[in-house]
Write a structure and sequence with these properties.
Blueprint lengths: L4 E8 L4 E8 L2 H6 L9 E2 L2 E2 L13 H16 L1 E2 L2 E2 L53 E6 L1 H7 L11 H6 L8 E2 L2 E2 L1 E9 L11 E12 L2 E25 L2 E11 L37 H4 L2 E3 L4 E3 L18 H17 L10 E9 L1 H5 L19 E3 L21 H4 L24 H26 L2
Antiparallel strand pairs: 1-2, 3-4, 5-6, 7-10, 8-9, 10-12, 11-12, 12-13, 13-16, 14-15, 16-17
């Protein structure tokens, strides 16, 4: 990374107001190799997309976090009046399960309309319930590189067809096309209530699908929607860069989501004496991150409110236990502070968000060469042997209930290259492939089969009616 005194002059569109972003790194910062924001991230008031093809062949820890922050800012930068990521495809759209645009879904049943309707947390059947007793919603996105690769538009087979997946080379990896690597994203959204202070949050108005009670439990009804203002509270980025086909997995949160759990705290101790967006002051550690899906979750259908409320605590600050990978933690803290200090005015809302951490494969430890990846089909990442960065990384709003589960306490516990099986009967399993690192890829494989099944059933039914 670079260390010097620099000033960059840019313009804020559309007002064409000049502003100066000054970066002054002292000699002490040079000596300590401080991880900081770079002037090259910005040009003419806009964020420059990271060049994934030019990621360093022998990177240091800071390089991964700088890529994460620059990519986050590029995704959040204004594009036609909204953050850029909101214009991306959803995984479902690749197989015609929804319209393009701001209508992300992750349900396995196709339907039309435009509403957020994912509500279950990663790796669990848990619903995160906020202090206003409303559920948190989730949405997924993929970039054009991902979409073109999957649909066979970048030279390979159409991988939205399960038959092509079953016959492809299992070592096939997600590409970098030009300077743009494959991206997979996930966002968490809080319903804004009338008493919520949203001055520091990014918000958007959108239809969301409603819940209903059913004989088999609480379900979501995509045909019944309500318009709400939603606040962005969490954001996952998985992105391919040169020599890292496993993707860099980084996560960001709103500053005031939840308190960090101090090292050595016992279950009967109070975590924090102040309120957070997802935590009531005075709550003991033993009452944090409790999954009501296990003990009993109740829905008041007329108001769409749940009980009990989830009290959220961040189990590992910056994704590491105390004393673990301290240089990684130091770099994240330094870069977070640098970004908050130097962001231009047109990006000021993102000063209220921070990088929790990032995790990736340590090529040097795995292969003896920093530019050679060990990724291969069948890797389970059950241990941290080849991993580095934030080894206990979780987003408190996306993986609330898995933060302390050894088998699920970082991204690679779930994002691996093992064989995958469908949760429904009649679907072919997904063989072990390098592409299995992506849950969007896995979902498309199974969704496509379900779509074919439903089409066949509909055809047979139509023939029977003649």
């Amino acid at each position: 990374m670079k260390h010097a005194s620099k000033c960059m002059l840019s313009r804020i569109a559309p007002a064409v107001i000049l502003f100066a972003i000054c970066f002054t790194h002292s000699s002490s910062a040079q000596a300590s190799n401080t991880c900081e924001i770079e002037p090259s991230w910005f040009k003419n008031g806009k964020v420059i997309r990271p060049d994934d093809s030019a990621f360093p062949a022998n990177p240091n820890n800071c390089d991964f976090h700088q890529w994460s922050w620059q990519m986050f800012l590029w995704l959040m930068d204004d594009d036609n009046g909204q953050p850029r990521f909101l214009g991306f495809d959803s995984p479902q759209s690749l197989i015609g399960l929804e319209q393009r645009g701001l209508s992300p879904r992750t349900r396995k049943q196709p339907h039309t309309g435009a509403s957020f309707d994912e509500y279950l947390q990663a790796g669990t059947d848990g619903i995160l319930v906020d202090q206003n007793r409303r559920a948190i919603y989730y949405s997924q996105y993929i970039n054009q590189t991902f979409a073109d690769f999957m649909q066979g538009k970048s030279g390979g087979p159409d991988l939205t067809n399960p038959a092509n997946v079953l016959t492809m080379n299992p070592r096939t990896a997600f590409p970098i096309i030009g300077t743009k690597g494959t991206l997979e994203l996930k966002a968490s959204w809080k319903i804004v209530s009338k008493d919520d202070d949203t001055s520091k949050l990014f918000t958007i108005e959108k239809d969301i699908a409603q819940f209903e009670n059913s004989p088999s439990g609480i379900k979501i009804n995509p045909a019944k929607v309500e318009k709400q203002t939603l606040a962005l509270v969490g954001f996952h980025i998985g992105g391919v860069v040169a020599n890292h086909p496993e993707m860099i997995w980084a996560t960001f949160e709103f500053d005031n989501n939840a308190p960090d759990v101090p090292d050595g705290m016992t279950l009967d101790q109070i975590v924090a004496d102040q309120d957070y967006l997802f935590y009531k002051k005075g709550t003991q550690l033993g009452n944090c991150n409790k999954n009501a899906a296990v003990s009993g979750l109740a829905l008041e259908q007329s108001t769409q409110k749940f009980t009990p409320i989830t009290q959220v605590c961040r189990r590992y600050a910056y994704g590491n236990a105390a004393g673990q990978k301290q240089s990684n933690t130091d770099n994240i803290k330094s870069l977070n502070a640098s970004v908050k200090k130097h962001l231009p005015n047109n990006l000021s809302i993102w000063q209220n968000y921070f990088e929790v951490g990032a995790i990736w494969i340590n090529n040097q430890a795995a292969t003896g060469k920093p530019d050679v990846s060990p990724l291969k089909p069948g890797l389970d990442f059950a241990t941290d042997e080849y991993l580095t960065g934030s080894l206990k990384l979780s987003n408190s709003t996306i993986e609330t209930y898995t933060q302390s589960a050894t088998a699920m306490n970082n991204c690679f516990r779930c994002h691996n290259t093992e064989q995958a099986f469908a949760s429904k009967d009649g679907l072919k399993p997904l063989p072990a492939t390098n592409l299995n690192i992506s849950h969007a890829f896995q979902n498309i494989f199974f969704w496509s089969q379900e779509k074919e099944q439903r089409a066949a059933i509909a055809y047979l039914q139509s023939q029977g009616e003649k």
